[in-house]
C-alpha cells in the first residue's frame, strides 16, 4: 500500500514525523488534501488545522500559524511559524 512520508516542523522543533495515508492543510486558496501519488506542489498556508492520518490508524490534528507545504514524490513537508496540538497547551514559535 502506498503511503506518504510526512514531516511537520515549527520554527524550533519537529512537531510530527512518520508515514501517513492522507494529509489535509489550510492552503492559501482553501483546504487541500494530499494522498499518495499527488502531483508535486508548493503552497503557502493560512492559519488553521493540519490533519494527518497516520498509516498506523487514528488521526493527528495540529493548529498551525502561517507557513508552507511542499509535496514531492510522496514526501510531504509542512513548515510553520508556530504549531499547537489541541489539548496539549504546547506552542512552538
How are the SSEs placed, and which strands pair?
Blueprint (H helix, E strand, L loop, with lengths): L3 E6 L4 E14 L2 E5 L6 E5 L2 E7 L5 E5 L2 E6 L2 E6 L2 E2 L6 E2 L1
Parallel strand pairs: 1-8
Antiparallel strand pairs: 1-2, 2-3, 2-5, 4-7, 5-6, 6-9, 7-8, 9-10
Number of helices: 0
- Which regions are unreliable across 5 or more consecutive residues at pLDDT < 50? 89-93
Can you identify the CATH class? Mainly Beta
SSE series: EEEEEEEEEE
Share of helix, binned:
under 10%
Rounded mean pLDDT is 92
CATH topology: ATP Synthase, domain 1
At the fourth level of CATH, the homologous superfamily is: F0F1 ATP synthase delta/epsilon subunit, N-terminal
Q: What structural class do the secondary elements suggest?
A: mainly beta
Main sheet attributes: strand count, strand direction, barrel closure: 10 strands, mixed
Strand segment tally? 10
C-alpha Rg, in Å? 12 Å
Structurally, the number of domains stands at 1
Describe the structure using short key phrases.
10-stranded mixed beta sheet; disordered C terminus; ATP Synthase, domain 1; globular; single chain; 0% helix; mainly beta; 93 residues
Amino acid at each position: 500500500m502506498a503511503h506518504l512520508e510526512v514531516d511537520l516542523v515549527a520554527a524550533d522543533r519537529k512537531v510530527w514525523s512518520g508515514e501517513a495515508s492522507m494529509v489535509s492543510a489550510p492552503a492559501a486558496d482553501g483546504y487541500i488534501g494530499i494522498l499518495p501519488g499527488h502531483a508535486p506542489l508548493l503552497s503557502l498556508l493560512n492559519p488553521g488545522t493540519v490533519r494527518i492520518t497516520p498509516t498506523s490508524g487514528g488521526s493527528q490534528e495540529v493548529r498551525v500559524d502561517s507557513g508552507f507545504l511542499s509535496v514531492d514524490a510522496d514526501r510531504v513537508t509542512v513548515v510553520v511559524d508556530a504549531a499547537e496540538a489541541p489539548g496539549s497547551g504546547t506552542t512552538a514559535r
